[in-house]
Specification:
Elements (H helix, E strand, L loop, with lengths): L14 E7 L5 E7 L1 H10 L3 E4 L4 E4 L8 E8 L6 E7 L14 E4 L2 E4 L7 H4 L3
Parallel strand pairs: 1-6
Antiparallel strand pairs: 1-2, 3-4, 5-6, 7-8
């Protein structure tokens, strides 16, 4: 069984990956993988993705040091989406929150419900 090629990728060769905290169940982020990034992730135990905006392969945490250690990998019934349960080191969100999903719809507005865990200007030296 070829677990990487058994999956269904979109026309651009990508598959969405939902990244979830292995201990709390919190959804940390959603990103895209191609065959190369999935293979590298499985080989190294750290998440690697394909950046659609930058058109490049990247290791989560390559700039910040906030890596993700893969603990479990799931696919759905259609084999076209992945869920990766990870141990998140510091934060997943590049703007300083632990999760990229730090805003909640309340009374027709987006309310910040997450707490910043780092200063992005310091980490990324902007």
């Amino acid at each position: 069984m070829d677990i990487i090629n058994d999956l269904k990728y979109d026309d651009n060769g990508l598959i969405p990956a939902v990244i979830q905290d292995c201990e709390t169940g919190e959804i940390l982020m959603v990103a895209y993988m191609n065959r190369e990034s999935l293979k590298t992730s499985l080989e190294t135990g750290k998440t690697h993705f394909w950046s659609r905006s930058r058109q490049k392969f990247w290791l989560k945490g390559e700039s910040s040091g906030h890596t993700q250690e893969i603990k479990e990998v799931y696919t759905d019934c259609d084999a076209d989406t992945l869920v990766m349960k990870v141990k998140q080191n510091v934060a997943a969100c590049h703007v300083g929150y632990r999760s990229c999903f730090y805003r909640k719809l309340e009374d027709g507005n987006w309310k910040i419900v997450g707490e910043k865990v780092f200063d992005e200007d310091t980490v990324y030296k902007k």
